[in-house]
């Protein structure tokens, strides 16, 4: 029996075991398999391991998407999570090339995936509070929001959770150094039913104004010279 002789349900089941690239390659072989690739039921779960993957055409975004994960585990994360004023020209150029990649993708999710239930972001150093705010507004069914090592996330995201996270059950803000204890307490007070975790976030050294850091650096150099 040829694969194309299988019914739609069997083909969808087979496709579900393949990664995004394999699905796309198989879809190129005939119209029937292309139709299976384009079936929204196949795309309820999406996992990405690099911002580069977000620019490929080997997946579909739509109302069927329920679970989304963008986890960038790489030495490059350290480059992007370094404060802009400390970066050398190479680091600045590297980060500039993909600065809006994740944010633009998430805004697309806001417009096309209103039934999203869970979102996990790890190492996404360019994602901002405004982006998470839009997601909470446009995805009212969101139950799980897990943010790890997202350095531009601040208490503004926590405030948005208290205002728009109507369905939220789980909130993780681990290693987000610009989250404060006051912001966490506000969530606990306003949303007592939310399972909140903030590993190391409020205990890490937050970003401060570059001017202050420059002053500290100059003072340190003077001490070394002395």
From TrEMBL:
The keyword Transcription does not apply. This is FXL22 protein. One of its GO terms (cellular component) is cytoplasm. The keyword NADP does not apply. Gene3D superfamilies: Ribonuclease Inhibitor. InterPro entries: F-box-like_dom_sf, F-box_dom, F-box_LRR-repeat, Leu-rich_rpt_Cys-con_subtyp, LRR_dom_sf. It holds the Pfam family F-box-like. Keywords: Ubl conjugation pathway. Residues 9-46 form the F-box domain. It comes from Brachypodius melanocephalos.
């Amino acid at each position: 029996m040829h694969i194309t002789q299988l019914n739609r349900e069997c083909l969808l089941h087979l496709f579900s075991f393949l990664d995004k690239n394999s699905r796309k390659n198989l879809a190129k072989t005939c119209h029937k398999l292309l139709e299976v690739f384009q079936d929204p039921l196949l795309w309820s779960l999406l996992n990405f391991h690099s911002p580069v993957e977000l620019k490929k055409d080997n997946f579909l975004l739509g109302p069927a998407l329920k679970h989304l994960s963008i986890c960038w585990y790489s030495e490059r994360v350290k480059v992007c999570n370094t404060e802009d004023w400390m970066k050398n020209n190479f680091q600045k150029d590297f980060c500039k090339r993909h600065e809006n990649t994740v944010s633009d993708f998430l805004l697309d999710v806001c417009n096309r995936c209103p039934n999203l239930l869970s979102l996990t972001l790890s190492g996404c150093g360019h994602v901002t509070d405004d982006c998470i705010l839009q997601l909470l507004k446009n995805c009212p069914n969101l139950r799980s929001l897990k943010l790890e090592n997202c350095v531009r996330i601040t208490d503004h995201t926590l405030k948005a959770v208290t205002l728009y996270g109507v369905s939220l059950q789980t909130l993780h803000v681990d290693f987000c150094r610009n989250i404060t204890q006051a912001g966490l307490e506000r969530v606990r007070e306003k949303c007592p039913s939310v399972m909140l975790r903030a590993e190391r976030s409020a205990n890490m050294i937050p970003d401060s104004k570059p001017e202050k850091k420059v002053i500290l650096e100059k003072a340190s150099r003077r001490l070394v010279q002395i």
